Amino acid sequence: MASKQSEEPCGDMSSEDQRGGFLVRFREFKPKEVLTWQLAKTLAMGQGLAGLICGTAVTSQYLATEFHLNTPMLQSFLNYMLLCITYTIMLFCRRGDGNILQILKRRWWKYLLLALVDVEANYTVVKAYQYTTLTSVQLLDCFVIPVLMVLSWWILKTRYRLIHYVAVGICLLGVGAMVGADLLARRDQGSTSNILLGDGLVLLSAALYAVSNVSQEYTVKNLSRVEFLGMIGLFGSIISTVQMVILERNEVSAIIWSWQVGLLFSAYAFCMYALYSFMPIVMKLSSATSVNLSLLTADIFSLFLGIFLFQYSFSGLYLVSLVVILVGFITFNAVPTPTIPTAPSISSSSSSNCEEGFYENPGATENDVTREDAPVGIPIEVEEEDEEQQVDKTTRKASDLSRRLGEETDEDRIVEHSTQM
Q1: For the CA atoms of the chain, what is the radius of gyration?
Q2: Which of 93, 207, 272, 303 has its CA 20 to 30 A from that of 62?
Q3: What are phi and psi of 359, to 5 degrees?
Q4: Where is this region: Disordered (predicted)?
């Protein structure tokens, strides 16, 4: 009875801790433990990626407005070719299982599908601008975040807490403030020829981007960043070449080349190449969802540049939306998102498991992990010590038994000798 009575309060306390876990964390909030150097580094790198996306948007807008060029496949082809020239050649120089021939033998069709998804995601979002408004693109493009969270929960076994959903809601409020600023400023909303088709293309692009980012996160954390970029560059170059010849051969042949056009194409290709090269690094430090939350500020950076380059009107809501999105990003990374380790991730490279520690967000440390989430394991050294102790015990028993038998035989010999006498 005493044991039962002592167990029942423990069960009540555990249920109360689960219900009030969020309040306890809020009361025990320590800014120094949350605002770590690793979180600051992830925030800075994420905003650097947003700046690269801003560069691609500005160069594309210059090509469209000043030179009347709309060649999304040609621009994507330049990016994939740069990836192929650098990372695919690196795979050729590798030996063993990391060589490109071994990779193609085992999983070529997976990278082919992944490259197809990535190419079409880039193409559909650019194509959507021809049919729908800028506001629709900015709002519907956020559809990538809930799709990412679902795919991360299903494929990567990521488990989100209430605070993560609250943080995502804060970031989406920031996007809403940005769209409201555009409407109040009466910014040019672009084409409205077929809004339904354009909105559908934006949603399709968001879903494709989510599939690509989740696959990228899995590959980077379990295999290799160079392998992912090299195979994407190889198959992406092939797919974009075929699609460019089919869809954009007339537009490409009609380009009037000049140093300004060449400079804009080069700037776009450099920004995309840097974005693809550095995104896996940031994704390995955090997660695909965290990276996409940080990329929400890219449109705001484009608006700031547009004030000086394209004479956009300024609104104070732009600053409000920037601050709100950054607050949501920090909130999302303040609490770890535990993952359930699967067999492939455990049997793969041990360095990735050591670096990640089964947690994606950098803002929280292992001390914030609850006992339910912490993986339990038996050290190998303890098992070896137990085996050695068992062997010692068996050898001691055997020696004692042999010693006793030897003493008994000596006593028998003495008795026999005395009887003979």
Answers
A1: 31
A2: 207
A3: -130, 145
A4: 345-421
Contacts of 179 (CB under 8 A, 6+ apart): 135, 138, 139
What whole-number distance in Å separates Cα of residue 308 and Cα of residue 314? Answer: 10
Give me the residues paired with residue 158 across strands: 339
Cα(134)–Cα(161) distance, integer angstroms: 33
Which residues neighbour 247 within 8 Å (Cβ) at sequence distance 6 or greater?
73
Average pLDDT (347-356) is 39
pTM of the model: 0.72
Most confident listed range (129-143, 172-186, 216-230, 364-378): 216-230
Please state the rounded mean pLDDT for residues 293-312: 80
Side chain identity at 87, as an amino acid letter?
Y
pLDDT one-digit tens code per residue, 100-125 = 999 999 989 999 999 999 999 989 88
DSSP 8-state class, residue 375:
P
Q: How far apart are alpha carbons 146 and 165 in whole angstroms? A: 10
Q: SS3 helix, strand, coil % of the chain, rounded to 5?
A: 80, 0, 20
Distance CA 333, CA 290 (A): 7
